[in-house]
Amino acid sequence: MPDKSRKVALVTGSATGIGRACALRFAEKGFDVVVNYSRSEADARETLQLVEGCQVRGLLVQCDVGNDAAVRDMIKKVEGAFGRLDALVNNAGTTWFIDHKHLEELTEEKWDRILQVNLKGPFFCIRAAAPLLRKSGGGAVVSISSVAGLSGEGSSIAYAASKGALNTMTRSLARALGPEIRVNAVCPGPVDTRWLRAVMSGEELAKRTAHYPMQRPALPEDIADAVLFLATGTSLATGQCLVVDGGRTM
Prior knowledge:
seven-stranded parallel sheet
């Protein structure tokens, strides 16, 4: 029988970057942690080892969050392993880096994949997890959105649209699931991750953020701190989209 005394967090897309930082923050706080990945198994196993190094239990689950049936199966595995779920972090996301003026490059296939992962994926995860969150006495959902969803800027028009819709959905679900379950989002600006470094050098990233009040990009740990606060540091905040961008959008 699983030990149901310790709280449990599920972090989607936690093989690297923000997801890994979130998984470690929860583990350091004493949560058992479910590490989810879609393709990066080796990186996900490394995250799992880091989580277990915090003397908590970890569970590795492969799942494409854009697949509703796979998401429901993932939640069943969480329930079977731990018997509870207290925090869900919707971090998994995707994009293509396409200049906003190049409309023809944003094909229907790319639109569909971005919306499937970035918008439908969090909905699938929240819907599947809600009964288990309630069973555990209520819980918290935090989705990783983006300031692109506020400004319309970002890696592509479809990406910005998906994050804008995620912000709206966060508020809708906060109303639908309260008071038992709180639903919030974090909206980062540029984050110094391997994902962003694939298209931007460290020098370019530093130049882009030099005029921000904080004069630097976010680190994954900066975003993880905000996620942990919304999940565990408050019992009243819900329906909020917390901007963590070094003052970029002030």
